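Sample entry (193 residues):
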Amino acid sequence: MLDLNHTFCSVIENNIKSVEEIKKLINKKDFYHAEKELLKVIKIKKNNYYAHFLLGNIFALIKKFENAIEQYEISNQLKPNNLEIIYNLGVMYGEKDELNKSKNFFEKVISLDNNYLNANLALAKIYERQNNYEQAKIFYKKTLSIKKDFILANQIYGKFLIKIGEINKGQYYNYKYSGIIRFNDKGVNIINE
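Predicted structure, serialized as tokens:
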């Protein structure tokens, strides 16, 4: 969720910390001071989409989902079609169990970038939560077609398959997740201890 490698026009006047200093505060989990600094930036430069985005990330990390959504919405208005912002909106609505809203945001991300890995996985998980196992399976498979050694996707898909009664297939993906099975250019490689 947190991609702190972005840059934004940092405002150094009025004793405001630089973006790098703010990111250090976030990385140290000093959310209180990072929030204060971001609010100073926003007060001076209201249209700074990235300051709103970072503030949304802070609220997400401290589980203030409504506040996070508010900041992501502002960020999204200032920088429409930013995949990361839209994805994070989907995550926040999912955290609030507003699954249809969440699904809509993930679908929008995928409409802009069909291979956005985390949006495909998140959409599979939403479909699973809605008991739409057929659609969930499609998006789990799609996620793994994008990145076959995606550990988290292999783990979740394995558990999903076992849950729906496809135990052998589920175990296969659990083996992939655990590292017993790996892929190379020639196909499957079984790791022997």
